[in-house]
Amino acid sequence: MATSSNNSPALLAIAEVSKSFGPVAVLRSVSLQVAKGEVVTIIGPSGSGKTTLLRCVNFLESYDSGSIRIDGKEVGYRDSETRQRRSERDLAAMRAETGMVFQSFNLFPHLTAAGNIMLGLTKVRGKSNAEARSIAEHWLGRVGLAHKADSLPAELSGGQQQRVGIARAVAMEPKILLLDEITSALDPELVGEVLAVVKSLAEDGMTMVMVTHEMAFARDASSRIVFMADGGISAVGPPKEVLAAETTNERLRTFLARFRASHF
Amino acid sequence: MGYTLNFNLIWRHFDKLWGGLLLSLELAVISIAIGIVIGLVLAVWYVSAGRVVRTIIAGYVEFIRNVPLILLVYLVFYGVPTVIDLAYSAPTSFVVTLSVYSGAYLVEVFRSGLEAVPRGQLDAGKAIGLTPWQRLIHVRLPTMLRITLPALSNTFISLFKDTSIASVISVPELTYGAQWINFNTFRIVEVYLVTTAMYLVTGYALLFALRLVERRFRAAR
Ligand SMILES: Nc1ncnc2c1ncn2[C@@H]1O[C@H](COP(=O)(O)OP(=O)(O)O)[C@@H](O)[C@H]1O
Ligand SMILES: [Mg+2]
Fold first, then answer.
1. Are B61 and B104 within 8 A, CB to CB?
2. pTM to 2 decimals?
3. Ligand 1: does its nearest atom lie under 6 Å from the Cβ of A162?
4. What is the distance between the alpha carbons of residues A174 and A237, in angstroms, rounded to a whole number?
């Protein structure tokens, strides 16, 4: 699958990416490499730039400097030197290689569960309706919603909607899946069914970058955990190291302590 | 009260009213259809354009909304042919006027609908790799339509009633038919009672049909 002039082994290579919203620096020279099959979890306080970083990876957000490559190919810009923005057609084609699941589900309300999954398959991947339908049914089965193929989003619970959201993303066979606090908008009793789906995708070898506040899940499912603070990566490593209560990183220790106090 | 109602003369000339109603509907349908095209194109252009285009479109909308329709009708029918050498019939002139008029109202309806489409839906469309055009067709317009349907129904009914203004340039629609019968029979109360009833019944029938469409869309939410 190596398709690039760049022979880095990383599937996703983020190098010194910075971004400001007006005068506010939101990302400060962030660098992170994710290998194929890795599950990287980003944790950190609200406002630390986690969402913005994920949105830069599929160019829902532009960035001011640095470079993001997927499979060696520069995202968003023709190259990191001239920083000439890619054409909309190019951007669309690149985004199709990255799946994204949103905190607020963002299903298309006028389409059924199957219809939500089929839209990208037919319009972007050029599959026939019948083909797209059978792929949609396959993935709905995988997320336990085979019986809801013809239900509209409004007829589904939050947990079911989010599972459709995951199916919509993975049905496109993306190289990498981005998940942004996908259980934060759910009632506690619905969180488990969604995390179970994510876990099974991880076991299949799907490369994932996820932002979550589910620490127990992060500990069990992640290859590495990244701690973000103030727009930068403050700590990164295996779950056991990063989540260790006796860490010497002051901010991380404060974050974890505050987190434990509010969640347990 | 020396006036006794007598509808006989009205029924004798009823073809004037019936034919008038059909023409009213025709004027409304054609003008609204053209108005929808104008409204959609300008609304989509507006939300993706820069300041200059926005100012021009807003100027068109403001102008139309602040000038009485009857003046626009006179302006297009008597004014334009005086200035430029162009001949057209009264019905054509009215359709042009009502199209431009309805376009301005529909731009507003569609624009606010487009701006009300949640950002997240557009992000989701981007994330699966849809091009801007595909996002417009498959994500933005369907959601916009569902948001705007109630306002659209009201606008359509109101535009149907506005066809009565075509009578001032002698287009033989429903109100003109009523005036003709009044001048020729002097049964003023009867003819306007019947005409009012015809506007009401048609208006309610339209509203009922549009509510049915709305309900279908609402179910799909
Ligand atoms: N579109 C935007 N315009 C201006 N500021 C923004 C925008 N999006 C995010 N921000 C700001 O950027 C910072 C980081 O936001 P975000 O990436 O959402 O953090 P997190 O996901 O870690 O909570 C916050 O201070 C937020 O207010
Ligand atoms: Mg966030």
1. yes
2. 0.86
3. no
4. 25
B129:A108 CB<8 A: no
CA-based nearest residue in chain A for residue B130: A92
Whether the Cβ atoms of residue A222 and residue A239 lie closer than 8 Å to each other: yes
Tell me the ipTM for this assembly. Answer: 0.91
Q: Which residues form the domain of B200?
A: 8-216
B162 within a domain of the structure (yes/no): yes
Give domain status of residue B3, yes or no. no
Residue B88: phi, psi to the nearest 5?
Answer: -150, 160
Please indicate, yes or no, if residue B149 is contained in any of the structural domains.
Answer: yes
CB–CB of B124 and A99 under 8 A? no
Q: Which residues contact A183 (CB under 8 A, 6 or more apart)?
A: A162, A190, A191, A194, A195, A212, A214
Distance CA B218, CA B221 (A): 5
Size of interface A-B (CB pairs under 8 A): 77
Interface residues on A facing B, Cβ-Cβ cutoff 8 A: 58, 60, 88-89, 92-100, 102, 104-110, 119-120, 123-124, 152, 154, 168-169, 172
User: Does the beta-carbon distance from A95 to B128 stay under 8 Å?
Assistant: yes
Distance from CA of A77 to the nearest CA of B (A): 16
Alpha-carbon span B130 to B192, nearest angstrom: 56
Residue B119 is assigned to a structural domain of this protein? yes
Sequence-ordered list of residues with C-beta below 8 angstroms from that of B139, at least 6 positions apart, any chain:
A108, B117, B121, B122, B124, B125, B130
Q: Cβ A96–B129 below 8 Å, yes or no? A: yes
Q: Report how many domains make up chain B.
A: 1
Spell out the per-residue pLDDT of chain B, length 221, in tens.
578 888 888 888 899 999 999 999 999 999 999 999 999 999 999 998 899 999 999 999 999 999 999 999 999 999 888 888 888 899 999 999 999 999 999 999 999 999 999 999 999 999 999 999 999 999 999 999 989 988 899 999 999 999 999 999 999 999 999 999 999 988 889 899 999 999 999 999 999 999 888 887 766 54
CATH number at residue B96: 1.10.3720.10
